[in-house]
Specification:
The complex is a heterodimer of chains A (about 290) and B (about 325). Chain A has one domain: MetI-like (MetI-like fold, Orthogonal Bundle), CATH 1.10.3720.10. Chain A is mainly alpha-helical and about 290 residues long. Helices cover about 75% and strands about 0% of the residues of chain A. Chain B has one domain: MetI-like fold. The longest helix of chain B is centred in the first third of the chain and has 39 residues. The two termini of chain B are about 30 Å apart. The chains are: A mainly alpha (about 290), B mainly alpha (about 325). The interface between A and B is large, with 108 and 109 residues. Chain A: InterPro entries: BP-dep_ABC_trans_perm (IPR050901), MetI-like (IPR000515), MetI-like_sf (IPR035906). Chain A: It is a multi-pass membrane protein. Chain A: It is found in: Cell membrane. Chain A: Keywords: Cell membrane, Membrane, Transmembrane, Transmembrane helix, Transport.
């Protein structure tokens, strides 16, 4: 990480104290919900219902066991896993192809493509939701391909959500790979696709992994489309947990345990890769 | 950047190779274009078409048969004396207030933290990672946790305010009534500011180091460097960041929907949820579509004006 050179003068006390105070407050703000999640998930139901206490008095792991039977969590988990993995895999491949075209070729319509794709990113999801819902219902009636209420419909929908960002970020990554590598691959007898697969993809792997994690996170946490386009058999974690949490008698300890279980994989992946994400954002903002 | 070389030859096989080469980028873009068309462009056009129809639950499977509505749906949505229009207008103002506050606070916290953490100190890397946790959490788990914290009798917020700090005599409600707006705002800021932090941190790394060296030679202090170098250099990053934050929060559905469920309190009724309710609770798709189109027009207008203003100011500064 390039750093600004250290000033010969140490920062003044006012700066150091501002930094301490601001960062401490932000640290506490960030910490509170995380602590509530963790500590409540280790409490028996009776303690959670008795009012909030900062420290659990009776530690238990029961909520982590019970949650799988209270809510069909395993079922939701499988649905979310299938939908998120498939949409991520397809989306990443499509984004790699498109980004390769934009980065390595100059062709009429290149600018138009970039602008159009990026601008779809800004439109409200609610705008697409209604027509897309109706289109899926009608495709189902007309062709028998069930998109509404099925994994497939959700996969197709989610994979487009992250395409614009993925393409934009990968173009930045691909641009930073020297063209001599392409040329070398061509000398070795590779076509453009061979060069992409053998040279560019390995060289841009950090960027590709970052894009994949971002896509996965987006699909994993999406609520709006999932709430309309899933039925009982394809319900994802996002909708399943939310529906459960909005009931009157909520086992909050179990819900907190479930929230932790479904968060940990994506949070860990994200934090491991944040370095690359920063690098990708930096590369993107240069242009 | 070099053009891919196209051999100039009359040979038919060479010509074919040329066509293939010229066609290659389009072939590579094809999947992306097809899916964008299917999920974004076609539905958007369909949505505009639907907004001119009386589309209710009776016509879902055969919406071509829905009677034409002319401008009726728009008239209802914009008739601020009628029930639908009044609700929409109220929800619009709430969304505006919510967005301005969320974007402002998130930007302030994100930029503040990033700038304060620009110079290395012990534990900086760890703290950076830690601050990103809320952004990495799935949106709904964060909102569910806040929902639990805002519970009147068993939540952390009232425990803190009533029992620990004695600020209130009786425990206030947070998820219904006027307080629900603040509950929504706090939840949104908690999730959003780390993103601003992430983007500004990335932006800071693009500021050339010699600017700071020059300032140090001139004897500029830390605060002065922040004011005269760091903040102005962040201008282009901020331009994009604020726009993105604005669009995200104005369209936010996950947070209110998770926090309050299908029927949010009127004081925290964001526009996305309002349109959702019109469409899927009242089964009035025509009306919902008209509202979506109005929302899109509003967002386009704001974006255009914003880009025009910030670009012009950017130029006159340069």
């Amino acid at each position: 990480m390039p750093r600004p050179p250290r000033s010969p003068l140490a920062p003044p006390a006012s700066f150091v104290w501002t930094r301490r105070i601001v960062l401490t407050l932000l640290g506490v703000f960030t910490f509170l919900p995380l602590w509530v999640m963790l500590s409540s998930s280790l409490k028996p139901l009776r303690d959670v219902q008795a009012g909030f206490s900062w420290l659990p008095t009776h530690l238990t792991l029961r909520p982590y066991v019970d949650i799988w039977s209270t809510v069909p969590l395993g079922h939701y988990f499988v649905n979310s896993l299938v939908v998120s993995s498939c949409s991520t895999a397809i989306s990443v491949v499509i984004a790699i192809l498109a980004a390769y075209a934009v980065s390595r070729h100059r062709f009429p319509g290149r600018q138009l493509f970039s602008v159009t794709v990026l601008s779809t990113q800004m439109f409200p999801g609610i705008l697409f939701l209604l027509p897309l819902f109706l289109i899926y219902v009608n495709i189902g009636t007309a062709t028998g391909v069930q998109l509404n209420g099925s994994w497939l419909g959700l996969i197709v929908t989610y994979l487009t959500f992250t395409l614009p960002f993925s393409i934009w970020m990968l173009v930045g990554y691909f641009d930073s790979i020297p063209r001599e590598l392409d040329e070398a691959a061509k000398v070795d007898g590779n076509g453009p696709i061979g060069a992409l697969v053998r040279v560019i993809v390995p060289a841009a792997l950090p960027g590709i992994v970052t894009v994949a994690v971002y896509s996965f996170m987006t699909a994993w946490g999406e609520v709006l489309f999932a709430s309309v386009m899933t039925d009982d058999s394809t319900r994802t974690l996002a909708v399943g947990l939310r529906n459960y949490a909005s009931q009157n008698d909520v086992y909050w300890n179990q819900i907190m345990a479930a929230s932790l279980v479904v968060s940990v994989p994506v949070v860990v992946a994200f934090l491991l890769l944040q370095r690359y994400l920063v690098a990708g954002l930096t590369a993107g903002s240069v242009k | 950047m070099a053009e891919p070389r196209t051999p100039v030859a009359a040979h038919p096989a060479r010509n074919w190779a040329r066509v293939r080469r010229a066609g290659l980028p389009y072939l590579l873009l094809l999947p992306a274009v097809v899916f964008e068309l299917l999920v974004h462009v076609v539905p958007m056009l369909t949505g505009i078409y639907m907004s001119f129809k009386h589309l209710t639950e009776f016509f879902i499977r055969n919406w071509g048969a829905a009677p034409a509505a002319g401008w009726d749906n728009y008239r209802f949505a914009l008739d601020f004396n009628g029930a639908i229009g009044r609700q929409l207008l109220q929800s619009f103002w709430i969304t505006c207030a919510f967005t301005v506050l969320t974007v402002g606070l998130s930007w302030l916290l994100g930029t503040g933290a990033a700038v304060l953490m620009q110079d290395p100190f012990r534990g900086r890397g760890l703290l950076r990672t830690y601050f990103l946790v809320p952004y990495a959490l799935p949106a709904y788990t964060a909102a569910i946790t806040w929902e639990f914290m805002f519970q009147r009798d068993t939540g952390l917020v009232n425990t803190l305010l009533v029992h620990d700090l004695h600020l209130f005599k009786t425990a206030p409600f947070w998820l219904i009534g006027g307080n629900s707006f603040w509950a929504l705002l706090i939840t949104a800021v908690w999730r959003t500011w780390p993103f601003a932090f992430l983007v500004v941190t990335a932006g800071l790394q693009n500021i050339p180091g010699d600017l700071y060296e020059a300032a140090a030679l001139d004897g500029a202090g830390t605060w002065q460097r922040i004011r005269s170098i760091t903040l102005p250099q962040l201008r282009s990053v901020n331009q994009v960041l604020v726009l993105v934050l604005f669009l995200w929060n104005f369209n936010d559905f996950n947070t209110p929907f998770t926090l309050f469920g299908n029927v949010p309190p009127p004081q925290a009724n964001l526009i996305s949820v309002q349109i959702y309710d019109t469409s899927f609770q009242n089964w009035n798709f025509g009306s919902g579509s008209a509202m979506s189109v109005l929302l899109l027009l509003f967002l386009l207008l704001v974006t255009a004006v914003y880009l025009l203003l910030t670009n012009r100011r950017g130029k006159s500064d340069a």
